[in-house]
Amino acid sequence: MSEPPSTRIAGLLAELPGIEAETDPVLVRLKSxxxxxxxxxxxxxxxxxxxxxxxxxxxxxxxxxxLAACLRHRVPVVPRGGGTGNYGQAVPLEGGxxxxxxxxxxxxxxxxxxxxxxxxxxxxxxxxxxRQQGWELRLWPSTKRTATVGGFVGGGGxxxxxxxxxxxxxxxxxxxxxxxxxxxxxxxxxxAWGRTAAVNHCFGTTGVITRVRLPLAPAMAWRxxxxxxxxxxxxxxxxxxxxxxxxxxxxMCAVIDWPLPSFFKGLAELLPQARPVALAMVGPxxxxxxxxxxxxxxxxxEAEQDFAAAEAAPELTPFYEFTWNHTTLHVLRRDRGxxxxxxxFPPGRxxxxxxxxxxxxxxxxxxxxEVVRFGGKVTMSALPLVRWTTRERLWEIIAGCEEEGVAVxxxxxxxxxxxxxxxxxxxxxxxxxxxxxxxxxxxxxxMASFTPLDGxxxxx
Amino acid sequence: MSxxxxxxxxxxxxxVETDRALVRQKSRDFFWYSPVLKRQLDKLTAEAVVxxxxxxxxxxxxxxxxxxxxxVTPRGAGTGNYGQAMPLRGGIVLDLSAMDRVLWSxxxxxxxxxxxxxxxxxxxxxxxxxxxxxxxxSTRRTATIGGFIAGGSSGxxxxxxxxxxxxxxxxxxxxMTMEETPRLLELRGPDIQKANxxxxxxxxxxxxxxxxxxxxxxxxxxAGFATLEQxxxxxxxxxxxxxxxxxxxxVIAAPVPQRHFRAFEGLIPEGMAVALLMVxxxxxxxxxxxxxxxxxxxxxxxxxxEAEVPLYEHSWNHTTLQVLKTDRSVxxxxxxxxxxxxxxKVSEMAERFGxxxxxHLEFVKLDGEVCCFGxxxxxxxxxxxxxxIIAVHEAAGCPIFNPHAFTLEEGGMxxxxxxxxxxxxxxxxxxxxxxxxMLAWDDPNWTPTQSVHLYESAG
Lengths: 460, 459
Description:
By secondary structure, chain A is of the alpha+beta class. Chain A is 29% helix and 22% strand. By secondary structure, chain B is of the alpha+beta class.
């Protein structure tokens, strides 16, 4: 038995005939969640949170109509892609509308290496389409199959490809976005290149992303390789050396300490016991140089496959689905007593910082690092698994990392400010928010330092 | 009958040139950029130029030369700057430019004969697989791939792909040995370093296999900055922009481009330092804000293929050439400004030498880090002063790959390359290949008693 929608939602929906909406509480609850349950801290905070209706616009005209109606009724709107975020990016804190963008999945065009796609297209869909024309995505999250392009821009931004291109925030990795605003009346705005910073990783608080323009990379038939090493030090040194090897075309390299690889269903069977591994995607013509580099670090290549073939075959898993937050997922599926962190090690003393962190928290932290380029330098970010005890202990560990010079993007918080390196949202973004969403109806509560105007001020 | 005449007789229909003027022409490269090398090497000439058309002919040439103990100096297009292709001890120049076929292109890989021109390889791979060579020297239109590997090290593309020596930048080399019965060897992986940048002293490279980079539509962009420091800071930051696809980032201090870049005459305001960029076309939209943020002004923009004189022909050692066209009183240096303090060292040296050593920088990746090479111009006075300038740079922590020395050891290496020496013993047991260029062959105990001894020999 479904309970009837509230009067304000009923009024809202009455103004939106012909637009797909769902009020069944079970389905609405399902579409009000993401992967925040990775965090035992967020779980109790977000578990009961849900929207009141899921609206699924088919095009930009419908998005504008929904936003206009929500504005009139003062109903909050939380945009949602694949719901693969880990910080409750897509969890509505104040009810209202969940704006499910997945019907808007059209690929609009390719112009001189830049693809334009609707926000609801999955990264897998875009990559597959691009590959047919000799191109590929520069970056994708480990959730490539289900995550949407709009969600990746709004709530993600790092992942596979980071070893070649940095993050989505690196200039050149995002050519433009089109957003629908919560202004009176709502309108579409195009933001090109640097101006995309106003919406990039803002959880949809500064506009609903409707289209994205992505610079592509020429397609490469990447080889997945899994190499094992006698100890973590040598695995990490290999990863960093690979990162610095500019002559080797590469897309990804994760360094994962034992016993985490034992959780990798489909790969663990091929790996030796008790040996840390590196999982990498490298250009086929670099296999010789990579094999030399593995051997130089006393490693052994244990498995190798074509990543695209693995992506397509139901019985196989591309190795990137064991990296980034998929590492965490594989472990949490079997052991809910663990959680994780997100760290960035300082370039120049990457390995030293990794080792100090491992030593300091030995016994309660298992290292998982991703070799990345950041600000033009090679370093590692990390998503280590941490034995969960209490929030206090977790915060102590975070403080300890920061003492070691390791930056932590805390994944156990739900606001943009708490998750940011400097614990604030920049003045330019706040100003942009005031312009495009003066009433603060877009994903309210996530940009905590924003104070909405009241109706009177907004009217002025 | 002289040895050479007998050799020529033995070679049958293999093309041979013995005209003295033509032989002398093919016995020279761009060594004359250096007044020191000019003095030392100017009179050198081979006795004949032999131009084999395939490996079978090459084998006959080498075998005959081994039997007669005739020195062989291999040559591509002769675009080197250290006398790499100049015969110190006579004999024959082995002109490899007829072995110029592109053998195959696959996605991200090409295999070509040693004498193929870089520009021709690029044209072939662009058409076949949408790829191009990762690097080329500024002499792309004339230089050969074999010559680039044997005598070069880096170039346009190094801001993205590092230098030729980095693993993965050469996939394979096929070499013919200098023995009575020449053998063909395929070097792959770490073995490639046995013959990479060995000036052809330990085998004749006959084929190369190279990785390819995506062939983007490149656009030349010239930006001006009020000061050298501003231009260098911009160039450093730009090279670090991993989201922007690029192939060239050079910086040249005033007044060099104003006085000597004829293609840009009147375009560059007085006093400005310039940054020379090659950027992939889709990323041009980002440039105005980046250049403005760096305090610069865009002065020129043109697709590389459409430019009458491409920007890269003003970069690397073409910068020097553009100046030498009108001013023969200059020479140049090759300097490493090592990361991470490279920009400070550039400023320090620029301040110390001022107009005597006008700054020219090439931003590159080296060992995975951004830094810059200096190909500074030097207003030449005496060899002693040149040695002093070099010594000051080295004392300040800026190593010089000395372009005023013609041996492997005194140039970049500063030490004996044991791997290359051991390989020479195997592949050229009689020491006939490009003799005199590998010091260690003649003196295995050679130590760098400073490259200064070359200057002491000033006559």
